[in-house]
Amino acid sequence: MKITIYTDGSARGNPGKGGYGAVLKSGPHYKELSAGYRYTTNNRMELLAVIIALEAIKVPESQVEIFTDSKYVCEAVEKRWVFAWAQKGFKDKKNPDLWVRFLKIYKQHHVKFHWVKGHAGNPMNERCDVLATQAADGNSHLIDFEYEKEENSLL
Description:
By secondary structure, the chain is of the alpha/beta class.
């Protein structure tokens, strides 16, 4: 099965209220995903958008192309940095909880990342941006427990 995914993340204040947006397309099928969080970072939302989209795929071993405007996510995977981070237990790396979750679902598919310039007129990237910012600005926010726990431990 071939699936195309577009993702984006947003944070107001960074850290602050945040959200993610994702669009999945496969043949005639189209699905939008988004959610907002009360306190998080842009990078966490960028990565979570990818994770949630991959977790929504019902067919294992799918051929997946992901388009993201996050160099943080795209380069970590395509330049294979995340695999070295994992071997070192994500020592001194941010967002280890999300990277562990990412690697678990990533290994279930054949995934290729593509970086796209944000806010440059790509309709699907623009749609993901709308989903992410609406989720961040909305009134219904989830709690990013891992991030808030980490932030509170630094106080």
